[in-house]
Amino acid sequence: MELVLIRHAQPAWRTADGTSTNDPELTSLGQVQADRVAKALAAEDRPVDGLFSSTARRAVATARPIEQALGTTATAEPWALEIGPPDAWEGQPEDDVIRVLESLKTRPLDEWWEGAPGSESFRDFHTRITSGLEDFLGRFGGRRHVDDPARLWDVPDDGPRLMLVAHAGTNSVITSHLLGLDPQPWEWERFPCNHASITVLRSRPIATADMWALEHFSDVGHLLPDLVTA
User: Fold this and answer.
1) Which parts of the chain sit beneath pLDDT 50?
2) What is each CA distance from 9 to 26, 29, 68, 194, in whole angstroms?
């Protein structure tokens, strides 16, 4: 089984009047990034057994050219949505939101788990992503191995190749979970990935079960240097 994680292209967090939006579309540069990643995936000329996307506008917009390039339709996966920012941030000056985000990074571990005031907590986010992932993989025959459920899996020998267009936080939690790492509330700091990047995880037989291996991480080889953003 192979899981291809694509981070959405550059989002337009800042609106024309300088305020912040919680569910942005792509910037013009982001549109170019999305087109480039779509061409790169199509150029691999390998079969894809399913294309999926978070329900966020930036993910849906990134998936659109991939759909066209691969000749398939993306299935919406609500569980894959990025951690929810506070509703109160909508329409606030973006510079103020950035200052709050930077200040939150200095908090102790226990406070990190609680998330930003008024937002989804990191505990709830981690549970949503990992349980959603396990249900998702279960549709294709991937399940936790009974003798070592924290690390090993059972997957079909001819498991599918699946693509998911999602987010930095979502993709980092998925990566940590499949690699069997202990959860942390800053997993996207442990696995930071660029906009429109490609990360590949593939199952491998081990003992009487299967493990997940990180084949590629945050690959942006399809982007020119001036198109790479984080």
Assistant:
1) none
2) 7, 8, 16, 8
